Fold Sodium:solute symporter family protein.
Amino acid sequence: MNSLDWVVLIGYFGIMVAIGVWSHKRVDNVSDFFTAGGKMPWWLSGISHHMSGYSAVMFTGYAGIAYTYGVTSFVTWSFPIAIGIAIGANLFAPRINRLRSRLHVASPLEYLKNRYNLPTQQALAWSGMLLKIVDVAAKWAAIATLLSVFTGISLNQGILITGAITAVYCTIGGLWADALTELGQFIIQLLAGVSMFVAVVIKLDDKNIGFLDAWNRPELQGHGKPLVGQYGAVFLLAFLFIKLFEYNGGMLNQAQRYMATGSPREATRSARLSAVLWLVWPAVLFFPMWMSPLLVHAQKPDGSDSYGLMTEQLLPHGLLGLVIVGFFSHTMAMCSSDANAIAAVFTRDVAPVLSAKARSWNERRGLIAARVTTVVFLGLSMAVATQVNSPTFKDIITVVIKWVAGLMGPIAIPMMLGLLRPFRKSGPTAALTSWAMGLLAFWLVNYPISWNVDGGVPLQYQVSIPLAVSLVLYIGIGFVKPEDTPERDDIIERINTDDDSGAAAAVPAPATAQDDVQRL
């Protein structure tokens, strides 16, 4: 990087902070901070949903997969995400929107204390928050890894810089700041991605390598196969189910985008836009990564530095700075949206249970608590990020695929399937049992069993078994021990219909945290 690249990078940081300051004026209460008051246009929600779904891990961990295996990086990652969101556009998006418009909640988990009970809500809230700390930590480590390639600064310095800038704009501006910065980040990434695509095409042409000829080169042998190695059919199917739940609300931040739109119909349109972007745009970003073995030799065994090395080699200064800004764009988009979602869960779902004072917060105190929680979450995730390459977490892609994908199912299944009528008989027993046994299955296949199997348990089973255990138990216990009640049925009906007559109209107001504490 030279002075021109630094100007681009610093200018980007300045714009992000300015957007946060401007968005601050639009945040008057907790609803504005967490769900934009339900006033976000569907197209902005869709772009925000897309941008908050991936980070610099794509340019490190998934760049390594693309460098090593080729197109399977797209087939087993962004393609199942696109399919999952497309399915969820009608299945989940309108129902999640009704959580805000019909039940008047500001956190995606807030409805669970009525749908199940308070212990279930707290179990999912605490485990979801802890998982998000690890997930976001991997994102900080990914962007810091790229920053170290370009600038030479240490991993911890990179984590501190990116985390501090993100904390400023997302803390003061809430979801509005997240969405507006994500719109700007999308435009930046569009320019950066196209620049890199063109640069690689030109470089291949200089080497007299055509697009079709490239796949026949020894360096790309086997790179055209959609499923290879540990990324096989079982992994693809497991990932499709995981992403169906995760990207439609299971990871909380995407649920907020659906809640922020003005109506269920707009939430559906938002999801469809995000699905199209996930189908098209990653292919543009992945193309240079697929061609990278022809242009660079990765220094790291997993190939995670290949994209960074390629940008340094191919792009002139100024454009190099723009691509680096693009790395920051994705990471800061995801991390800021995660921070906002976790702040919503803690402020609305956890704090009122822990503290009597929290149950009597007015709008001003609730907003202050939300901002403080955001800062604390970011600080914890940055601390964990310094340990990503430790023996506990191993490398970045291990954290993202094994930990996040493997643990997502047990947490998301009770939340997401609890929205749907066919699963109305699955109550607190089904939810808590499926959650607990899914977490136990994750631990067993990744540690005790893996230690006693030559070569360890294959990755596809590490991520699929916890999901399968949770899914079977949630559905099976619902049939064996049905716990549907008129009150729970009314909640489900209200989520599933826009009709204000009949059963939906009889739904009581959501119970307060104080009521639930008294029940315990």
In short: The two ends are 58 Å apart (CA to CA). The CA atoms of residues 353 and 518 lie 10 Å apart. The chain has 22 helices and no strands.
